[in-house]
Structures are given as structure tokens and as C-alpha cells.
Amino acid sequence: MALLVQKFGGTSVGSTDRIEAVAEKISRFRKEGHDVVVVVSAMSGETNRLIALAEAIMDEPTPREMDVLVSTGEQVTIALLAMALQKRNCEARSYTGAQVRILTDSAHTKARIRQIDEQRMREDLTAGRVVVVAGFQGMDEQGNITTLGRGGSDTTAVALAAALKADECQIYTDVDGVYTTDPRVVDSARRLDRITFEEMMEMASLGSKVLQIRAVEFAGKYNVPLRVLSSFEEGGGTLITLEDDNVMEQPVVSGIAFNRDEAKLTISGVPDTPGSALRILKPISNANIEVDMIVQNVGADNRTDFTFTVHRNDFRRAKEILERAATELKAREVSGDSKIAKVSIVGVGMRSHAGVATKMFEALSDEGINIKMISTSEIKISVVIDEKYLELAVRALHSAFELDKPGGEV
Length: 410
Ligand code: ADP
Ligand code: ASP
Ligand code: MG
What we know:
Elements: E1 3-8, H1 16-31, E2 35-40, H2 46-57, H3 63-70, H4 72-87, E3 92-95, E4 102-104, E5 113-116, H5 119-126, E6 130-134, E7 137-139, E8 145-147, H6 153-164, E9 168-173, E10 194-196, H7 197-205, H8 213-222, E11 226-230, E12 238-241, E13 255-259, E14 262-271, H9 276-286, E15 291-298, E16 303-311, H10 315-329, E17 333-337, E18 340-346, H11 356-366, E19 373-377, E20 380-386, H12 390-400
Parallel strand pairs: 1-2, 1-9, 2-6, 3-6, 9-11, 10-12
Antiparallel strand pairs: 4-5, 7-8, 11-12, 13-18, 14-16, 14-17, 15-16, 18-20, 19-20
Helix pairs in contact: 1-4, 6-8, 7-8, 9-10, 11-12
Bound molecules: adenosine-5'-diphosphate, aspartic acid and magnesium ion.
């Protein structure tokens, strides 16, 4: 019999009826003899509702109080799920992150897990109880409540599975697995039976929010068997695995990720001297603004144009900082565009195939889509385009790389 960590996301626990359905599912696993630790998210929409309440009080709520507030969403669902299990004569106990000693650093709203004391959970499991743990939250050394960033319940589940050396970490959600691209955008997207940790990591960090990036990172590091499945339908879902040498031929592209959260800034006519990139980006990073893609071009007049992307929420602040830097650097002008999107193709098969970029650019050019920025790594190519062409671009690439045809799985 197996030890399973099962995580149920916001939609899966979005109403009391759905919580009862989750309890039904878990009690079936218990009847089969499995030990189960459950991690739950807040009911869908609840975390957003709490954030909006805080923002009605102040523009930039203090992170410590924010964590006290948003962690309440998960406390509601653990209690309700434990009750629904008890009603089915399935013994269960609910715990907050602090109660099961999920120890994190003190980086409020984006804390990292340092340590988990799995003793208490083991005692409950030995006594035949289902352990229901609040996702997304922990406690720092001073006893402050912390949270792990949006989508963080996935990371709680993987971390518990690693600490307990569970046989499998199962992420139950509102789709029946990981698809070649977001099935809500492309109808012909196909479910993958398997995807490698490395590809899933790229997909997540390039915008596929089906799994939190840190959860995939953690699972890869501790080799936690991870599976994404539907809360509502039966099926094997998608297994996230190590690269499998036995697969005869890897598809070149396994998936397409996209992201509408970025904005682009350009400072042009910067004198081309050593240290100018540093003088542009240092004040941005000092303001805690993360930079993603960077492109620099030197023109014939020995002046450079420097373009980079930031999160859309940071666009206005970054532009103000850049305008100040432009005056100091005697640059020509600063411009920006917040209506952009990033589209990326991902696949371990790219390592051994030439011409992937050409095929990508051709597919976009055939649709008349202009590429504004490009960046590549060993297993991905990303382009920045106008946001209005995003869906068209994803569909065009999905069919150019034949992702709608069966047999493309890793
Ligand atoms: P949960 O609340 O269960 O954590 P999320 O909304 O965080 O669920 O994640 C599931 C959603 O991820 C799906 O509804 C789907 O729209 C989206 N998604 C984005 N990219 C993909 C992909 N490649 N495969 C499957 N789902 C994806
Ligand atoms: N409730 C949190 C969020 O909405 C964490 C999660 O659902 O994973 O981001
Ligand atoms: Mg999620």
C-alpha cells in the first residue's frame, strides 16, 4: 500500500459540494488501504478576494500582515474537508502550515521552505488518520505566518511528499493533466502522458500556471514522483519524469507556453561605453524589479539601444527609474510597451535538432506576426510579440510543430 500526498486546487474545493466530492475520493483511497496526506488550496477566488480587501485599505499592504490575511483562505478549506471526511467515517485531522512545522525563511509573500518536521504527520498516519494540511503557508523562526507565493499549495504538496518520502505526489486540478499548451486557449491541445522535469520547469517559468515553478524545481531536486490529474474525472493524468532514455525518439517541441504578464522598455541612443548596461539596470534591480529578457544593439553612431522586459505590475515604476537614468546617461529617449506577450516553444528534443528557430519564425511570419525580441536556451525559444496576436501565434506554432497530432508525447 502506498503513501500518497494529494493536493486539491481552488476550483476542486470551490464549494461545499465539491469539498464533499473530494472527501469521497480520498475516502476511496483510504478504503483501498493507502495512507493519505492531503494539501488544499483556498476556495477558488478567495485569495483574490482577500487581496482586494487589503488593497481597499492601503495601496501597498505590508507583507507581514498580507500573509496573516491571505493564509486564512486555506484554513477554511482544511477544516471543512476534515469535517467532510469525518462524516464519511474516515478519520481525519486538519493542520495549518505552522502546526505541522513547515519552517520557512522570513521573505513574506514569497517565502521558501527550509525544513519540515514530519513527525506529527507520521503519528496521525500510524493511527489511521488522513492528515489535511493547509497549502501555501508556513511559519518563520520567529513564529510569523508566511506564504509561498501565488499557486504555492503545489509547493507545499511536493515539499511534504519529499519530507515523507511519499510514493507519489498527486496534483488534482480542473484539467486532466499537462497539455501541449493551455487547453483553454487552443482547442486542439493534447494531454501529455509524460513530460520531463526540465521541460515542465521551463513551461512553468515561461507562463504555464498549471504547476508552480518552485514545486517543479523541488520535485526535480528531491526526485519526487509527481503527477497532475483531474479532480473531476478518472484517468492517469500526466507523470512528470526524469528524461527517459528508452523513448525511441523525443519530439523536437513538447509544449508551448505563453505569458501576458510582461512589459517592454527601451532606452535608446545610449553612449556605447563600458558600464552603461550596469548603469541602466542597477537602479532597476535596486528597486527590487526583476528583469527578464534583455537585448542590446549598437548602432552606426556608436550609440546603443537597450531593451528589456519586466513584470507588467512594475512597468510604470521601471519607466520612471529609466527616465532618470536616461538623463544621467545622456541617452536620446525612453519608450515602453505594456501590450506585449511572450510565446515560447519548449522541448528537450531541440538539443539535437537544427532549424527549430527557423521553423518558428516561418510560422509566425506566415501569419504576419512581427517578432519584437528573441531569446533562446538549450531547450526553449521565446519571442515577444504584440499581445493582440498571442492566440493566433500559439495556434500557428501548435500546428507548425504538429502538436495536435498523437505521438508527440515525451
Ligand atoms: P488549481 O487551482 O487547481 O491550482 P490552476 O488554475 O492553478 O489550478 O492550474 C490549472 C490551469 O492551468 C488550467 O485550468 C489551465 O487553464 C492552466 N494551464 C496553463 N497551461 C497549461 C498546460 N500546458 N496544461 C494544462 N493546463 C494548463
Ligand atoms: N490560494 C493560493 C493562491 O490562490 C495558493 C494556491 O492556490 O496554491 O495563489
Ligand atoms: Mg495552481
